[in-house]
Amino acid sequence: MISQLPTNANVLEQAGYFTVPGADLYTVVHQPTDPVARVLLVGPFASERHFSYHPWLRWARYLAKRRIEVIRYDYRGIGESTGVFEDLSFEDWNEDVSLLADWAASRLPRIPLVLHGLELGAILAGKCFHEGAGDALLLWSPPANANQALRSNLLSWAGMEQLWESPENRTSGSQYIRQLERGDSIEVQGYQWSSRLWHDSLSFELPSTMQSDSVSDEVYKKPVKVVKLSREAAPLVKPHLMYNELKDLSWLYSANLDWIVSALAFQRKIR
Amino acid sequence: MNKKSETRELFTLEGSECIIRGTHHKVRDVSYCAQLDIVERDRIGVLFLNSLSPTRAGKGDSAVYWADSFAEGGYPSFRFDLPGFGDSDGDPPADQLNFINHGCYAPIVCTKIRELVARFNLSGVVLVGLCAGAVSAIHTAAACRECRGVILMDPYFHLPLSPRSSVWGKLVGRIPAGALRRVLKRCFHILLAARVQMPTAKLPSNSNFGLLRHYKELASRCLPTLILTVPAVRQRGVGFDYINYICEQARNNQMVLQVVSGADHTFANRIGRTSVRRFIEVWLNDYFPLQGRSEDVVSAEKSECGSAKSRIQSVQRYLHEESLS
Q1: Which of A71, A127, B7, B52 sits at a 20 to 30 Å CA gap from B153?
Q2: Of A54, A189, A245, the CB nearest to B60
Q3: Quick one: closest CA in A to B89, which residue?
Q4: Domains detected in chain A
Q5: Any A CB within 8 A of B60 CB
Q6: For the CA atoms of A193, A195, A197, A202, what is the dihedral angle to 10 degrees?
Q7: Distance separating alpha carbons of residues A104 and A20, to the nearest angstrom
Q8: β-strand A37-42 against A68-73: which pairing, if any?
């Protein structure tokens, strides 16, 4: 199916700041001429952004070359966006997605909007979709709740840290978790994790109606797809080895583009 | 969407058929400056070059933090993505590390610095580079007249070792795991440490000679240079203490070496980023003082961190410690 989609080299990439309460979100619009659909990418969280940046950006460019307008952004307090990470909460990041989804839906031309999230971003995209935004939802490796994502990042980071520390200075992942649980903040890959963030993450969940595609389709009456990414999709997901090298993920991109195309059934327009 | 926020501005440099995207951190608190117009037309910009980190934000967004801080202190700061990094066009070169080590980014950085200087009315730039970024900074500074100083964060001066010979591999493979292998390993590390401590040791064959030559050029030009390094750097097992070597090469008043305790290689942790910010702020004030800046502000900062020039003694002390050990 992918071979039938014409690629469009005339893609504008416009970066700017999208203003939300108390911050400016770094936002990039990949704008092809005559787009047939629009995708809002809700990307990897905090330190994951660093590792997944190359394949995430290339996914955006891949879609844009195939006449799908893409909007991607950095969360409040992360990457190029303004704001202080340790002062923010999941509610703030949830608000970012809602405001951007509203803005995306209001853009011209009026075309179908797909919400698409990766890992913790998948929970955010899912919650926004649950509230009624978007015409389709594509989730890559959503955890059941935000704590799963944070815990996985923490354990992975703590494991790496131990390689560099002398035995007497080593702190295990479970020790860090105990620090968070007793109210202390810890620093993970340059981000200050507060105890509040940790506790909030336990109840910040993917809507239960999204646990399976068939249930989702029935509940939302709109296409929903949940994809569990394997290690082959690294560095989009762990392990993040060789993350600064370019990896060919066209197999993943083409399969997911096929789903977007079929879900929104806009092949006729393209032809 | 806006191109500007209150404190930042996004820019694109499109010359030489190469599109580079970046962020300008605007000078915002100029209340200390009696003559704003002087600052506006004759400013030194601080430009961050990519390390091997995929984006211009750096690990843990540390580069964003530093750029915000220096802009707040009166120095317009810039971060951009070179081709193959972050949001800029193009894919990374097939062997990116080799590309960087041999200074292949320098011509494009020189061109982009000229564009940046013209566009933002700068009198020049100070280049900041971490790790591979420091390598690009040295190569670029040697070729770029607009470069007024360099800040090298944990630079390296060696090339990757060629794969171990099959003979060595076979020999090691024949030693069974156990006490003998541990003893041999221990001996190897003792010999390696001894080699590091030898002040007259020759440059290893895998030294980046082109980079060292460019560094010497900077030293002979007396280009203000701040080197920030971490205590663990000398124990990394590269087999030669390059920091000691380049300190010997640049015995002039324009080089400052600072060992940052408590930081890791990326300086992205809290202690590392705060220390780096303070050391660079003091160094900038010493070598590129802002005209009209209140003496009270400057003296307050110096009392906190000490003058950068006074820390030249730290280089001498470092060398002295080396010779003693």
Answers
A1: B7
A2: A189
A3: A13
A4: 2-144+205-270 (3.40.50.1820), 147-204 (no CATH)
A5: yes
A6: 130
A7: 14
A8: parallel
B6/A187 Cβ within 8 A: no
Residues of B in contact with A244 (CB under 8 A): 52-54, 92, 96
Q: Count A/B contacts: CB-CB distance under 8 Å.
A: 83
Question: Domain-by-domain residue ranges, chain B?
Answer: 8-161+206-324
Contact assignment for B270 to A17 by CB distance below 8 Å: no
CB atoms A53 and B54 under 8 Å: yes
Does any CB of chain A come closer than 8 Å to the CB of residue B252?
A: no
Contact criterion met (CB < 8 Å) for B59 and A17: no
Q: What is the pTM of this model?
A: 0.87
| A57 CB-near residues (< 8 Å, 6+ apart) | A72, B86, B87
How far is the alpha carbon of B91 from chain A, nearest alpha carbon, in Å?
8
Fold type of domain B8-161+206-324:
Rossmann fold (3.40.50)
What is the rounded distance in angstroms from the CA atom of residue A194 to the CA atom of residue A217?
37
Cβ within 8 Å, pair A13-B61? no
How many angstroms separate the CA atoms of A2 and B207, rounded?
48
Give the distance from residue A157's alpha carbon to the nearest chain B alpha carbon, in angstroms. Answer: 13
Please give the structure tokens belonging to residue B20.
């580079």
Closest-CA distance of chain B to residue A11, Å = 12
pLDDT in tens, chain A (271 residues): 343 455 566 899 999 999 999 999 999 999 999 999 999 999 999 999 989 999 999 999 999 999 999 999 999 999 999 999 999 999 999 999 999 999 999 999 999 999 999 999 999 999 999 999 999 999 999 999 999 999 999 999 998 877 777 777 788 999 999 999 999 999 999 999 999 999 999 999 999 999 777 788 889 989 999 999 999 988 898 887 777 777 899 999 999 999 999 998 754 444 3
Helix (H) or strand (E) holding A244: none
Q: How large is the angle between the packed helices A47-65 and A250-264, nearest 10 degrees?
A: 60
Count of CB atoms within 10 A of residue B325's CB? 9
Beta strands in chain B (DSSP E): 8-13, 20-25, 43-48, 77-81, 122-130, 147-153, 225-229, 255-259
Q: Between residues 223 and 242 of chain A, which touch chain B (CB distance below 8 Å)?
A: none
Reading the block at residue B35, the tokens are 């003559």
Confidence (pLDDT) at B177: 65
What gap in Å lies between CA A123 and CA A129, rounded to an integer?
10
Q: At CB < 8 A and 24+ separation, what contacts does B7-13 make? A: B7/A82, B7/B68, B7/B71, B8/A17, B8/A24, B8/A82, B10/A15, B10/A16, B10/A17, B10/A26, B11/B80, B11/B119, B13/B80, B13/B112, B13/B115, B13/B116, B13/B119
- Which residues from A are below 8 Å from B273, CB to CB? 190
Residue in the block written with tokens 């079929």: A262
Yes or no, beta carbons of B57 and A190 under 8 Å apart: no
